[in-house]
Design goal:
heterodimer; A: 166 residues; alpha+beta; Nucleotide Exchange Factor Grpe, Chain A, domain 2; three-stranded mixed beta sheet; 2 helices; 6 strands; elongated; B: 625 residues; six-stranded mixed beta sheet; 35% helix
């Protein structure tokens, strides 16, 4: 039987609802994509910023690594200066001059020595290698400075190695 | 969305990593280091120190500095007798027989100590990522029982974290290498770190990883190797100078540092020198330590320790009821696996299998944990897998050179444009030959297609601006367009399948390019020299024409002669030296013309003339491959 009118009404309604649903669905999809797009852009932007920061950090790190090795040479120059034994005065003077020269180079890179002897032990700057008895310094302070601490600007380049007074 | 991180909560050191942008990043702590000592200290004034700073004061505050709390977590007091005896801090029995640390009369659970380490790691990660991190995946040794896992979870909860999952360390290491995606396999994870040694055998497949067996030595690590070097140095020194360096704290400290450095160096070189000037002094004056340590000597020194790795390995294999042949993959974890002797041992124990070791062995567990965290937080699924162009794409330019527009390994979709010009006066058309490959010369690469842009507005050579655009969409479909900026005339082609080459073919093309690199460079150099010479000859010709009678007759004659010579040299394909010397003569002549007073403003400098000459156009038909 043909009931075109009857048949058509629900059909039209279905169609209307379907296209309405479809529209809503597409709207939703569009919003999701828009959101995803903005997030991706933001992620990219943040990533770029972090990379810029990281490149600087890598640069500083590389420089620090080299400076730390140079500081080890300074350690040895200081050991030579402090050493007792037969050595011409002029030779010691020469070593002192080299020592000043290297410290000058370090200074130009913003590297400074930190005096620890007699200061209160502070794990931010000091690494304890052991304890020691002392008449010169009170308990809890640095009694022996085995190697000096160095700072580069605000950054700890390397902590001092110390013996702490019992 | 909040990011989830993976944490390798280690016995001596901990590492935190995050999955983002489709890859894992290991996060540096506030002190700038990628590993954080798992050490917590309580100071006399009631402060708490965590990490490197806590370790620095451990010697003077041993009873209040907790390290290796992992050895105690989730265990009964009665189980940890051996560990308690060697710990410098007080380990006591709490209620119901649990382990507690007695710090200045206050009792702490091991999970409280671990929570402080976790907190530092997560705080530093939050700072790095610029957002608060709450969700974490934490790894534990495969041999951890339920109580130990539960206690580790509690540590996370105390730290205010949301534990997405606790996973096994060897599982994490396998995830870091993507072994879970390779189908059914048996994986052996060899973990030799700073203080512990673990060997685990896993069944991996279909996204499920199961531990078949595990064995190890909880007190064997890289530090033991350092001690062997220190002993050797001290003994040698004593034999030579009669001074015992181990009695001198200062000297001993220097020996330990030098030993670790030497050990690390010997992983990449066969011999290292240990140089410690002014190590000590006696009545005769200062003494210096200056020794050489070869890799062979080092291996002899640590041989007994390396041999101790064999037992647990064999035990794990027999517990898993497997033979060497059943192992498909080997994964190396822990800094000590960088030592060639350790790697050789692993190779010989696994029947010559080449171990996976491309991921930093100190970080591989955290990397795997971060991948797991990414999966659980939905990050990994959310990431749209972006493809790359396997080979470079470009066009043929003057002299048959391949000019790359999109470099190989560029993530797609991508769009790049470049401006080219004409090689002839009033050139009416350019031929765009779209190429794919890594070779320098067009003829050695694959032609993907070509087309002709016609109707270019008449202009002197080098002044037309033709914009060539390569646009490759996410499906690898390449659109190449060329547009004359003066007339707006445009022509384009679409090439599909530019990324669908077989892996073998791509590898072959890349290898070919490497193989012919030197010879290709030579050919390209020559073409470039010829192009430059040709461009200068053209410039000279124009100058002479523009200046007319103002140019003294002898200069004009010289210029004309040079033009003839250079064109002849190009035509004869003369050697590059001759072309270069003629070019430099011509350059001189040109500059003296320009600097002379009769010079007036003429046309601007020549533009690069890259698209090939129109008279080379032979094959204009569309040619998609």
């Amino acid at each position: 039987m043909d009931h075109p009118k009857k048949m058509a009404t629900p059909d039209e309604g279905d169609e209307a609802r379907t296209s309405d649903d479809r529209l809503k669905d597409l709207e939703k999809q569009l919003l999701e994509k828009e959101d995803l797009y903005l997030r991706t852009l933001a992620d990219m932007d943040n990533y770029r910023k972090r990379m810029d920061r990281e490149i600087k950090e890598v640069e500083t790190k590389t420089r620090k690594a080299l400076l730390i090795e140079l500081i080890e040479v300074v350690d040895n120059l200081e050991r030579a200066i402090d050493s007792k034994g037969k050595c011409a005065v002029s030779m010691k003077e020469g070593i002192r001059a080299i020592h000043r020269q290297v410290l000058g180079i370090l200074n130009r890179y913003g590297v400074v020595q930190l005096e620890s002897l007699g200061k209160e032990f502070d794990p931010r700057y000091h690494e304890a290698a052991g304890m020691i008895e002392s008449k010169d310094f009170p308990a809890g302070t640095v009694g022996v400075e085995m190697r000096k601490a160095y700072l580069m600007g605000e950054d700890m380049l390397r902590p001092a190695h110390v013996l702490v007074v019992v | 969305m909040a990011k989830a991180v993976g944490i390798d909560l280690g016995t001596t050191n901990s590492v935190v990593a995050v999955w983002e942008q489709g890859k894992v990043t290991v996060i540096s702590n506030a002190e700038g280091s990628r590993t954080t000592p798992s050490v917590v200290a309580f100071t006399k004034d009631g402060g708490r120190l965590v990490g490197q700073i806590a370790r620095r004061q451990s010697v003077i505050n041993p009873e209040n500095t907790i390290y290796s709390s992992k050895r105690f977590i989730g265990r009964k007091y009665s189980e940890v007798d051996a560990e308690s005896k060697i710990a410098p801090y007080k380990v006591v029995e709490g209620k119901d027989g649990v382990v507690r640390f007695d710090i200045q009369g206050k009792l702490y659970a091991p999970q409280e100590i671990s929570s402080l380490v976790l907190q530092k790691l997560v705080n530093d990660a939050s700072k790095y990522l610029g957002e608060k991190v709450k969700d974490v995946v934490i790894t534990v040794p495969a041999y951890f029982n339920d109580a130990q896992r539960q206690a580790t979870k509690e540590a996370g909860t105390i730290a205010g974290l949301n534990i997405l999952r606790i996973i096994n360390e060897p599982t994490a290491a396998s995830l870091a290498y993507g072994l879970d995606k390779k189908g059914s396999e048996t994986v052996l994870v060899f973990d030799f770190g700073g203080g512990t040694f673990d060997v685990s055998i896993l069944d991996v497949g279909e996204g499920v990883i199961e531990v078949r067996s595990t064995n190890g030595d909880t007190h064997l690590g890289g530090d033991d190797l350092d001690n062997k070097i220190v002993d050797w140095m001290a003994t040698e020194f004593k034999n030579n100078y009669g001074v015992d360096l181990t009695k001198d704290k200062q000297a001993l400290q220097r020996l330990y540092e030098a030993a670790e450095k030497a050990k690390c160096e010997l992983s990449s070189v066969a011999e290292t020198s240990i140089n410690l000037p002014f190590i000590t002094a006696d009545a005769q004056g200062p003494k210096h330590l200056d020794m050489k340590l070869t890799r062979a000597k080092f291996e002899a020194l640590v041989n007994d320790l390396i041999t101790r790795l064999e037992g647990p390995f064999k035990q794990a294999l027999s517990d898993a009821k497997l033979s060497i042949r059943d192992i498909d993959e080997v994964v190396l974890v822990g800094g000590s696996t960088r030592i060639p002797a350790v790697q050789n041992l692993v190779r010989s124990l696994t029947g010559g299998k080449e171990p996976n070791q491309t991921v930093n062995p100190d970080e591989v567990v955290a990397v795997g944990a971060a991948i797991q965290a990414g999966v659980l937080a939905g990050e990994v699924k959310q990431v749209v897998l972006l493809d790359v162009t396997p080979l470079s794409l470009g066009v043929e330019t003057m002299g048959g050179v391949m000019t790359k527009i999109i470099e190989r390994n560029t993530t797609i979709p991508a769009r790049r444009s470049e401006i080219f010009s004409t090689a002839e006066d009033n050139q009416p058309a350019v031929d765009i030959n779209v190429l794919q490959g890594e070779r320098e010369m067009a003829q050695d690469n694959r032609t993907l297609g070509n087309f002709k842009l016609e109707g270019i507005a008449p202009a002197p050579r080098g002044t037309s601006q033709i914009e060539v655009t390569f646009d490759i969409d996410a499906n690898g479909i390449l659109n190449v367009g060329a547009k004359d900026k003066a007339t707006g005339k445009e022509q384009k082609i679409t090439i599909s399948g530019s990324t669908t080459l077989g892996k073998d073919e791509i590898d072959r093309m890349i290898k070919d390019a490497d193989l012919h690199a030197a010879e290709d460079r030579g050919r390209k150099e020559k073409v470039e020299a010829k192009n430059e010479a040709d461009g200068l000859a053209y410039q000279m010709e124009r100058q002479l024409k523009d200046l007319g009678d103002r140019v003294p007759i002898h200069e004009k004659a010289r210029g004309e002669q040079l033009i003839v010579d250079i064109r002849q040299a190009i035509k004869d394909d003369a050697d590059i030296q001759r072309i270069k010397s003629l070019t430099s003569d011509l350059q001189q002549a040109l500059s003296s013309l320009s600097s002379a007073t009769y010079q007036e403003a003429t046309g601007g400098p020549a533009q690069p003339q890259r698209p090939r000459k129109d008279d080379d156009v032979v094959d204009a038909e569309f040619n998609e491959k």
